[in-house]
Design brief:
By secondary structure, the protein is α+β, with helices and mostly antiparallel strands. It is built from 15 helices and 23 strands. The chain has a 6-stranded mixed β-sheet with strand order 4-3-2-5-7-6, sandwiched between helices.
Length: 482
């Protein structure tokens, strides 16, 4: 049922502080994200209080900043079908979007793999798959979500109770360029992280922002709800305003993690040898620096951190093993193996690896072409502005190639070409993802670098064909043409 509560005592100064915090955060986000010409911005909106306030504040912000009108604001809603009120929620968000004169899109999803991932995570995976599809369809490069200060505190508490390390205690970042469940072209932003739930309730009350109430948010069987409704109220009795303190702590943790990453990069340069980790050089570091470097290196390679037990194994079996032995440690679908004095990471036998040779490609006007060898698909969008001449793509010859080293790309007419290595680093694309991002060539001309964008020195006409790369999710062995 929709709700527009007005019973809360209002504090206009607190409301003004919250709105100012949102606007300052969004301005900083927009200053740090370089959007392509005509690229859109999306707002993920469930219809609940948090996202309803985000939608209203975002609409007000964009209406008061004319220079942003070239980047249309879209509203996205995901219909999980888990509640009997789900159809009503969809209609409510669509109505709100129409009142704000904003384009609206929605996807209905089926929540599967509950036994494998649990109900909360299964719903999250389905939600991000739908959001990814809508971002691709509408050429959205910046997606706003309504995570706020209390959500941050809940996330930190959950991570602490799971025994997480510093990355878990760091919580959610206001800007996340390399979200594992979104396309590489999409940056996730959380402009409400400095606003509390109470402040959002006051904004909704003052501005009469209608919103729905999701009955599942009261179900204490879900861990996050148990923390929100049972644990946090008890803590609040003794530590008033503790969620704000936890949010401040997350900034300190993020700073500390950033410094540790810088240290790991410096140590990695000293220990790197022909693309592999030199164990003799690694052993010269202190134990803590070894662990820090191994966590960083493994995450960059495979996208997940080794556990404390796996780090212990790496110390015992890799650093101190005889040079004529080849011990192995399994981490998910990957194998860490010592070969002489080097530590290498490779995919397990039977697990696909990215191609090492060029693959010919023929485009005949399709909207997308599945590329299973690279676990993704190329999307072709006809439009105006920047893009490629349709005849150039039709005539080819087109090939998808792995990086060889030394390639350069010019993303902006006003800026010089840059090496792919530097562009990937600047974009925050992890080293583990880069081998799965192919390069599209027409003859010997680089047209498009997946995960980065189009080469603007290639031939263009109007109308043009714009290219996008959609990576398949980790548990998806086939294409996703939504």
């Amino acid at each position: 049922m929709a709700n527009s509560r007005k019973s809360l005592p209002l504090n206009n100064s607190q409301i003004a502080v919250a709105v100012t915090a949102f606007e300052r955060a969004l301005e900083e986000i927009l200053a740090r994200v370089v959007l392509s010409d005509g690229a859109a911005i999306g707002v993920a909106c469930s219809g609940g209080l948090d996202s309803a306030v985000l939608l209203q504040l975002s609409a007000d912000f964009f209406a008061s900043h004319p220079h942003l009108h070239s980047h249309p604001l879209h509203v996205f809603h995901v219909h999980h079908g888990l509640s009997p009120n789900a159809d009503h929620w969809l209609a409510h968000v669509q109505s709100q979007s129409q009142q704000l004169n904003l384009p609206f899109d929605a996807r209905k999803v089926s929540v599967t793999s509950v036994d494998q991932h649990g109900p909360e995570n299964a719903a999250r995976l389905a939600r991000y798959e739908a959001l990814s599809a809508m971002c691709t369809t509408h050429r959205v490069e910046l997606l706003l979500t309504a995570h706020h200060q209390d959500d941050q505190a809940e996330t930190i508490m959950l991570q602490a109770l799971r025994g997480a390390g510093l990355p878990g205690w760091s919580g959610m970042a206001a800007l996340q360029r390399d979200h594992a469940l979104l396309p590489a072209t999409v940056t996730l932003a959380r402009p409400l992280l400095d606003c509390s739930r109470k402040q959002l309730e006051q904004i909704a009350s003052e501005r009469a922002i209608a919103h729905i109430v999701d009955e599942s948010n009261a179900d204490a069987r879900f861990k996050r709800n148990a923390i929100r409704h049972e644990i946090f109220p008890l803590i609040e009795q003794h530590f008033e305003g503790f969620t704000q303190a936890l949010a401040r702590s997350s900034h300190h943790f993020q700073t500390a993690q950033s410094l540790l990453d810088e240290l790991a990069c410096s140590d990695l340069q000293q220990c790197f040898d022909a693309g592999e980790l030199n164990l003799k050089r690694l052993a010269l570091l202190s134990v803590d620096r070894i662990d820090n470097l191994l966590r960083f290196w493994v995450y960059e390679k495979i996208g997940s951190y080794p556990s404390q037990a796996q780090l212990h194994q790496l110390h015992q079996q890799m650093l101190y093993a005889a040079t004529d032995t080849h011990p192995q440690i399994m981490i998910g679908q990957w194998v860490l193996q010592r070969e002489h004095n080097h530590l290498i990471i490779r995919a397990q036998a039977g697990v696909n690896q990215p191609p090492i040779e060029a693959i010919p490609l023929v485009w005949q006007g399709e909207r997308h072409i599945d590329i299973p060898e690279w676990r993704g698909q190329l999307l072709f969008e006809l439009g105006e502005g920047e893009g490629f001449d349709r005849e150039l793509l039709l005539q080819g010859p087109l090939t998808l190639r792995p990086r060889q080293g030394g390639e350069r790309l010019k993303l902006d007419e006003r800026r010089p070409s840059r090496s792919l290595k530097n562009l990937f680093q600047e974009s925050g694309v992890s080293a583990g993802r880069r081998p799965w991002l192919p390069l599209l060539y027409a003859g010997d001309q680089l047209l498009y670098a997946c995960g980065l964008g189009a080469n603007c020195i290639a031939g263009q006409k109007s109308p043009v064909v714009r290219l996008h790369w959609q990576a398949w999710s980790a548990d998806n062995s086939g294409g996703n043409s939504k």
